Amino acid sequence: MRIQIDSEKCQGHNRCYALAPQLFDVDDYGAALVLNDGIVPAGLEDTARLAIANCPEYAISEVASEVASEVASEVASEVASEVASEVAS
Ligand code: SF4
């Protein structure tokens, strides 16, 4: 599991850091940062989800795995091509 913070949305409430100091840090301006490049160590997935759920700005999100993204993109491409061929016939 990997998480990220949208710095445009983060307002520095620091709830994430209070809930999960193992996963977040705060910079000199109060903005939150993910530790370990956002990679959540095994066993801390629920803590990460708790932080995601408690961010009032919806600034924290889980990064879709590269494999999941590739599969989704391939499926979308196949569906688009099937629809296009049905419309053409
Ligand atoms: S709880 Fe959300 S808005 Fe607040 S510091 Fe953490 S990421 Fe930023």
UniProtKB/TrEMBL annotation:
The keyword Metal-binding applies. Signal peptide: none annotated. Keywords: Electron transport, Iron, Iron-sulfur, Metal-binding, Transport. The keyword Iron-sulfur applies. It holds the Pfam family Fer4_15. GO terms for molecular function: iron-sulfur cluster binding; metal ion binding. This is Unannotated protein. It comes from freshwater metagenome.
